[in-house]
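Hey, quick one: can you model this chain's 3D structure?
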Amino acid sequence: MWAAREHDMLVPETGAAPLYEGLRVARPRIGAPDQLEHLEFGRISATGDKIAVRAAGSAVWSELSEVVPPLTPDHLPREGGPHWPDDDDQRTSDAIALRLNRFMRDLDDLGWIGASDAFVEKFWPRFERQITATLARNGAKDLPLVKNGVLALGEANDQDGSTILPPSLAGWRRYLELAPTSGLTFTELKQVGDAWWMRPFPRGLLTDARRAGEAEDADAANAAAPAAPRTASLKPPSATPKPPTSPPEAPRSTQPTQPATPPPPPTSEAAEAAIVASLTAALTRTLREARAGGPQ
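Sure thing. Here's the predicted structure for all 296 residues.
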């Protein structure tokens, strides 16, 4: 049940035990039933009808559509069952080193088509230099190279600082990460994905990345643009002229207003002089009239 939840499986039509990447089994060897044959299964093909397998100590993976004879529950890993050979690691390393002396231009020549991810993660770091040198020596082309963080397709070169992405799941994820900024076409990226990883390059990845980049550029441009100055709102002049406003009144004093002071009354001497002058004038006028024979 655990395998069914955690792995893609290839279920034989014969009803035999299901197969999945990473499965290791031990079964009687064909023609020598007293001897055990240890098998490790790799990746299921993109078509879903084949799975890669290798024998313990072997550097070569082969694809098959079914296991003959079929596996039984007794062949599957179990508590108390046969152990995986302890010398598998050393024998496999020796087999890889020997194979690198042959002509090799791709993973098929190396024998790693369909290799399990755990196998590649273990042995690629050990033999990366030798694999790169062998591919360069034999003129291998269209390899997924990374130099200064940029993805390119080209020939292997162990002298220019470029590295080959490993044919593992981690290498595939790095490939997809760098693809949108590589300038490579969908067709080029798809061909390398099929040949180096046996994985289909996802459609729409380049378009989605380009749109996301355009949106980020637009946001950055808007953030960098200076803010437009704010202007006061001007109202149109009214059609009816407003009456002139009165001049502002002078501020009123807060001090209380004092009443006007009346002129001082005349003194007694002045009054007497005025009366005398008035009487003298009247008397003088009367005498003149008398002399003249009556009033004029």
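One thing worth noting: The beta strands are 9-10, 19-20, 24-29, 32-44, 51-55, 62-64, 143-147, 150-154, 163-164.
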